[in-house]
Amino acid sequence: MTSTKVVKITPASLSEENLKKAAEMIREGGLVIMPTETVYGIAANMLNEKAVEKLYEIKGRPKNKPFSLHLDSKSKIMDFAVDIPVRAWKLIDRFWPGPLTLILKAAGGQTIGMRMPDDDIALKIIALSGVPVVCPSANLSERAAPVTFEEAIKDLDGLVDLAVDAGRTRLARESSIVDLTQEELKMLREGAIRKEDIEAVAFRKTILFVCTGNSCRSVMAKALLEDKLKKMKRADIEVLSAGVMMLDGIGATEATRELLAQEGIDVSGHRSQKLTEEMLRKSDIILVMEKVHEERILQFLPEVKNRVFLLKEFAEIGGSDLNISDPIGRPMEFYEKTFEVIKKAIERISGII
Q: What phi, psi does 39 have (nearest 5°)?
C-alpha cells in the first residue's frame, strides 16, 4: 500500500500556493486530511459520489449517518438549508466561525449539518476547492477524534490521497452539535462550546431599532430600552440599532446626547452602523421609525416581513400618523417632542417584551 503524501504547513508557509494541492485534490474527488481548530478531518467533495462512498468505507460509518458540511462563508448556509430559524442566525452571528455544528432542514425533507471552522488553513482549502466540502473527523468509527497530525495519519496512511500536517489543533476538542430542525433546540453533542453558553445566545431575544442615519431616533430608543432593561434586571434581551442610509462610525447628534444625558444615560461612545442582512436575520423584533424604513427593509429582505413594525404601532400609541419624523436639522423643541414620543413607546414595550 502506497503511503499518503504529506504536506507540512506552518503559519510562516500559509500561502495560497501551499494549499492549492489539497484544494485541487478535493475538487477532483480525492480525500484529504486537513486540520481545523477542533480536530483533524477528512475532507471530500460532497458532489463526488465516489469520494463520499470511499469516505463512508474508510470511516466505517453507516450510510444513514450523513457527513456535515464545512463552509468558508456564513452566507453559504443558504445554499444548502431551508427555513432557517432566527435562533440559527443568532448562533451563527455569535459562534461562526467556530466550533459549532448546526443541524438544519434541507430541501426534500432532509436535514443537513454545517459549520464554519475557525482555522485559516481549513477555510482557505475549502474556498480554493470551489466545491461543497464534507469533513468528518479523521478517525475510524469508535476511535477518538485526532487532535494531532500523528493521531490522524496513524490509521489512515495510504487510505487517503493527501494529508496536511499543521501540528496540534488549537482547541483539541470536537465541535458542539445543535439540532434546530424542530421547534425545540436539541443539544446532540456538548463539545468545545458549553450547552449553557449556546442556550444563552439561542434563547436571548434580539430587538433592533432602525432609523435613517442611526444618529438620533434609533439611538434614543436603544439607549432608553437598555436603561429600562437594566433597571428591570433583564439580561435576556439584546438591543441593537442601525440606519438604512448612512456611513459607519458617526456619533450621536449633540441634541440626542443632551436629551439622554438628562435621563442619566451617556451615549457619547455611540458610533453609527449601517443596517445589515445579518442584523435583520437574527432579530426577533424590528422596530422602525417611519413607513419608509419598513419599505426599505422589505425590499432588502422580504422574509422578515412578520417581524417588522413601526415603533408607535407596536407600542399601540394612537393617532393618524404612525411615523416618528426625523429631527435632524430641526430646532431643539422638535427633538424634545420626538424624544418624548420615543420615551413613551419604550415605556410601553418594556412591559410587553
A: -140, 170
